[in-house]
Amino acid sequence: MHMLEVKDVHKSYGKLEVLKGISFTMDKGETKVIIGTSGTGKSTLLRCINQLDLPDKGEVWLEGEEIAGRSKSINRMRQKIGFVFQEFNLFNHLTALRNVSIGLEKVRGTEKEEARKRASEELKRVGLEEQAKQYPAQLSGGQKQRVGIARALTMDPVIILFDEPTSALDPELIGEVLEVMKGLAGKVSMLVVTHEMGFARNVADEIIFMENGVVVESGPPKQMFTNAKKERTREFLGKIATLYGEE
User: Fold this and answer.
1) With contact defined as beta carbons under 8 Å apart, do 46 and 83 qualify?
2) pLDDT score, position 75
3) Between vectors from CA 207 to CA 219 and to CA 2, what angle results, nearest 5°?
């Protein structure tokens, strides 16, 4: 049994068909990276996995349980799925520590003291123990995103979904977020939508190239970067390499 199974997921908004039958699996501790041009449905796919959007057709299985469209168990299943957003989505009126601990208190009913202790541990893990009492307005973009990662980790999710976690950051702050993510690789299951090809090449167990709502090709980084089977994959990776200066 795979930890995550996505089977033939379709999603349309009005007449626009965004996902046209996406299927893949993930096992515990794996890091998979989804790449592709903007507007190919990568973010929509993540939203269908954690049920922010419901697939029109297809199934999503998490730890052997089918979750797509199951309203009765939605909150329980969502607790198993961490989500790190492009735009941080922090509570501006709460300190970094409270941003991380509040989910445990409100969703899990954890005692305040215990929740804060756990939140402190996760802030330390992402290198932000000294910023615990600061508010989001006092933090850099990279620090805010690391708070977002700590918040996801605190809930002990089965998998964390990352939706372009560095795209809203200034270039010099991207590295600190990717470093934290690299440190999680193998310990936490991660499904990452990103344009960071260095991260994809060095950290991913598998790269999934999506375009126009379908999976064009997937495979381990070495194969995808040096020996992609599809012409379109080679073309896309070549363009990305030129654009981002990858070797």
Assistant:
1) yes
2) 75
3) 80
